[in-house]
Amino acid sequence: MSKPNHNSKPTTGAISRPESTLPTPALSPSNSAGPSPAFSTVLQSPAVSEFELENPFDKLQQGQDIPECWGHRGASASFPENTKASFVEACKAGADGIETDIHITADNVLVLFHDPELHRTTNGEGLIHKQPWAGVLEHVRTKKAPHQPIPRFSEVLEILLQPENMNVKLNIDCKVENDPTKLFGLIKDVVEGYEGWQSRLAPRLILGIWHPKFLIPACTILPYLPRYAISMSLPQCRKYFFDKCHGFSIMYEALASSDGARFREECRSKGKSICAWTVNDREEMRQCGRWGVRSVISDKPDVWREIRKEIETDRVKALKPTIGTYILPFLNPKYYWFYHQRLAREETEYLEREGGTFDIHIPEISLGIARPSTI
């Protein structure tokens, strides 16, 4: 969930070919091979009568004592981030969900990758959106072993549809570099291409949104998916997203501040969910348990599993504050307000540079979650 590498210098040159013994997966027909019909239509909200309005996460929030753990780009502390191997490992480690990032290739294939360019984590070069999947990106491999290909969106959905993973959620971090109408149209095409998607997939998917320009396309094209604002800035969440999103995915350090305590209470009073990222430290995991947030997003779902067992065994003992609980925030500069506010300011500058100003007119949006009829 952390921000892109803004200092990288994207290129558009040809990619280098991997020296990998892993076979290239056979290409199968992609549900996202062409543009969605939504691209050429005026965005209009569907008639309410077409859906049963229900928030599929309400029941999960009621009486929930222990936060869930969503694997950050899978189990990225152990396997290359945003790969099938990482996603599978997160599920095996007992993660309640997977957090991943999404981009569109030049031939309209949805791929799961964090940066807009390839070079930080793979042997490829250049921008993803300027290169096709077929014949080019399908051959890219991760620098980190075991060397893995870039997965398509359909491949993580297939992991979720495995019998052992039917309770695993998917948090889709919608990168600001994407055109929201095109992105959500392609997501819709892929998701609705699966038999029984209404009950087997839709209730487990979440849209993570960084920029207000994604709000109207999200609630119009994918009205059956909850919207979580992703941010480092609590004032930004209040101003642009609070009455338009069902939850918030927030940098842990911001939540740990005095304003973070106020924000947590505001969300609690309004029934908003909170995810904290990226939480890898054991004491920070326990703090999330004390706060009662919806979920922790972590590179280490295996470590959270241990913490969860401690809480289930003896909640009071597991979450009892220690000396470290009070000392830790003073020992690391990342907890000081000027540090995370600087990061928030830099992130906002990047988001507005890539996606335009946040100050756009957004009409009133219903917070009802549309559940398509399964009949």
What does this structure look like?
The protein has 375 residues and is α/β, with parallel strands linked by helices. It has one domain (52-355): Phosphatidylinositol (PI) phosphodiesterase (TIM Barrel). It has helices at 58-61, 84-92, 153-160, 180-191, 197-200, 215-221, 234-241, 252-255, 258-270, 282-291, 301-313, 315-319, 323-331, 337-355; strands spanning 51-53, 68-72, 97-104, 110-112, 169-174, 205-209, 227-231, 247-251, 273-277, 295-298, 370-372. An 8-stranded parallel beta barrel has the order 2-3-5-6-7-8-9-10, surrounded by 6 helices. Strand 2 (68-72), helix 2 and strand 3 (97-104) form a beta-alpha-beta unit. The longest helix has 19 residues, at 337-355. The chain is globular and about 55 Å long. 44% of the residues are buried.
How large is the share of residues in beta strands? 5-15%
Structural category: alpha/beta
- Assign a percent range to the helix content: 25-40%
**CATH architecture assignment:** Alpha-Beta Barrel
Sequence stretches where pLDDT stays below 50 over 5 or more residues: 2-63
CATH fold name, please? TIM Barrel
Cα distance, first to last residue? 36 Å
Number of separate structural domains: 1
Oligomer: single chain
Summarize the structure.
The protein is α/β, with parallel strands linked by helices and 375 residues long. The protein has helices spanning 58-61, 84-92, 153-160, 180-191, 197-200, 215-221, 234-241, 252-255, 258-270, 282-291, 301-313, 315-319, 323-331, 337-355; strands at residues 51-53, 68-72, 97-104, 110-112, 169-174, 205-209, 227-231, 247-251, 273-277, 295-298, 370-372. β2, α2 and β3 form a beta-alpha-beta unit.
